[in-house]
Write a structure and sequence with these properties.
The protein has 352 residues and is of the alpha/beta class. It has 2 domains: 4-154 and 332-350, Rossmann fold, CATH 3.40.50; 162-329, Glycogen Phosphorylase B (Rossmann fold). The protein has helices at 4-7, 22-36, 50-54, 86-99, 117-124, 134-143, 162-171, 186-189, 191-201, 219-225, 241-247, 263-269, 300-312, 314-325, 333-350, and strands at residues 10-14, 40-45, 61-64, 80-83, 103-107, 128-131, 148-150, 176-181, 208-213, 232-236, 250-253, 274-277, 293-295. The protein has a 7-stranded parallel sheet with strand order 3-2-1-4-5-6-7, sandwiched between helices. Strands 10-9-8-11-12-13 form a 6-stranded parallel sheet, with helices on both faces. Helix 2 (22-36) crosses helix 15 (333-350) and helix 7 (162-171) crosses helix 11 (241-247). The radius of gyration is 21 Å and the shape is elongated.
């Protein structure tokens, strides 16, 4: 049950991203979880933001801002602004200057923040800096630009449809599915390492099919570089991710950098064993030999060996998947919303 003081709290979320990726999914999940608790909210986003469609069923005020200078005097003044990405931080700083509204920010990327004047000014202006993983928290504390706390991302509770799942099972009958989900941007997600692993395992594990979901700037070149492989499919972007997770036997996540890797939480919920790169925020989720297998980053040979280990030892994979699922209580949208609510209330009280 929500305390009466929560119902009067008005949170203004800001996300000025053009597309819809992990950060936007987390923005949506948080808004929905807070709405379930009766929190008044508004959202500043681009006029063409996919978030508008994703949140169309909620009673939430939408404020159009196609850049950081727009939307500052639209709607009534909120109690608190929550900036969800880099441009939103600039918007929130200006809102504080113009209307006196306190703000917090969530940082989702693992790269250290550049020590520039405007970064120092906007980060120091925030009431709190939220990191989604331990590596980001460490970077923020090293900068010492303000109070820091850690609130991890949440799993998305992805649905699945039995008829579509059955169709996929018929399509891939006789194959073991090694899945991957992520934007096809190799410098981030490391899909060339998947191509390397598929090439290494083609002869020894001929029944294994690498199934990669997603689109991105490297799609054409990745298709060309793997054209000779008959054990790898670039499936493209699909919204029904849960259906695909139902048919996966293993999941590979060889990212070269990763703030947290929240898709791994959804993979765990579906009971799929994981092999992932030991980089940035991923070890916050995947604990080696407990909730999955970690391999050195940038190492296709190690990735292939870990995949083969789980393929050849299904009981180990089942054990890792069971242990992974048991750790998900702290990664639900409700847990994320409750953690932010504590923070919102504290900041609000400090600014009364």
């Amino acid at each position: 049950m929500v305390a009466s003081k929560s119902s009067t709290l008005h949170i203004r979320h800001v996300n000025l991203a053009r597309g819809f990726r992990g950060g936007e999914r987390q923005t949506e999940l948080l808004i929905r979880a807070l709405a379930d608790q009766g929190i008044q909210q508004s959202l500043v986003c681009r006029s063409d933001s996919p978030l508008r469609g994703e949140l169309a069923d909620l009673d939430i005020a939408l404020i159009a801002a196609n850049h950081q200078l727009a939307g500052h005097f639209s709607g009534k003044r909120a109690d608190l602004v929550h900036a969800h990405e880099a441009k939103a931080v600039h918007w929130a700083y200006l809102q504080r200057c113009l209307r006196g509204t306190p703000y917090l920010l969530t940082r989702r990327v693992p790269q250290p923040i550049k020590d520039k004047h405007f970064n120092r000014m906007t980060y120091r202006g925030a009431s709190c800096l939220v990191a989604i993983s331990s590596v980001i928290e460490r970077h923020l504390r090293e900068q010492d630009w303000g109070p820091v706390t850690r609130i991890p991302s949440a799993l998305a509770l992805l649905p699945s449809d039995p008829e579509r799942v059955e169709a996929l099972r018929r399509r891939f009958e006789g194959r073991r599915i090694l899945g991957h989900i992520g934007a096809l941007v190799d410098r981030h997600k490391g899909q060339r390492l998947l191509i390397d692993a598929a090439r290494r395992l083609q002869a020894s594990h001929p029944d294994v099919l690498f199934l990669c979901l997603g689109r991105g700037e490297d799609e054409a070149v990745l298709r060309r570089e793997s054209a000779d492989l008959d054990n790898l499919i670039w499936e493209g972007f699909h919204e029904n991710v849960g259906d695909y997770l139902q048919v996966m036997n293993l999941f590979a996540f060889p990212s070269r950098n990763e703030g947290l890797g929240s898709i791994l939480l959804d993979v765990m919920e579906y009971g799929v064993p994981i092999v992932a790169a030991n980089v940035d925020g991923i070890p916050d989720i995947v604990i080696h030999e407990q909730s999955g297998l970690l391999v050195p980053a940038e190492d296709g040979k190690a990735l292939a060996e870990a995949i083969a280990r789980l393929l050849d030892n299904p009981s180990l994979g089942k054990q890792l998947a069971r242990d992974a699922r048991s750790r998900l209580n702290g990664f639900t949208p409700e847990a994320m919303a409750n953690a932010y609510l504590v923070l919102y209330r504290r900041i609000h009280q400090d600014n009364i």
